[in-house]
Amino acid sequence: MDKLSFTTEIQKSKFICYLINLESIDNIDIYLNKIKKDYNGANHYCYAYIYENKKKCSDDGEPSGTAGMPILNVLENNNLSNILCVVIRYFGGIKLGAGGLVRAYTQSVTNTLEHAELVEIKKGQLIEISFPYNLDKKINYLLKGFNILEKKYEENIKYKLKLSNNDLKILTDNNISYEILEKDIYV
Question: What is the CATH code of the structural domain delimited by 123-186?
């Protein structure tokens, strides 16, 4: 799980914002439960996510529309997808009012995004290539800069890696055959 957190303090309330890269919508409850366990005792765990064409937000007990929707708005305004944003709030004793809460949650997410390294996520394939040992240097040169997930040295060398659909052209242009292990994944 790729994640980033940043803490913002506003009028004695502490807002801890997490940005989590989503590889699947199925993991959201796991992330939320882990954060609730890690920050047991916080007053609110507000969140928003965008995954492909699905969006959801939660105020988690804050007045309606003052937390989840501002979080979602920041994600949308930055054209983000495949992301879960959770803001944990520890109440500091000073009521912020509806407008103050909207500004506080917006500022928390914005501050965190300023510290984030955003990457473009592309659709691709999980593939395996198998090649003789005498092509080792050529293959390694062609795949320089790509993350090879697994290497096996058997009768032939086998590499398992994720490539975007555009990057698969490198293999086809060089007559290197590959087997698709998983289609339409994010790389």
Answer: 3.30.70.120
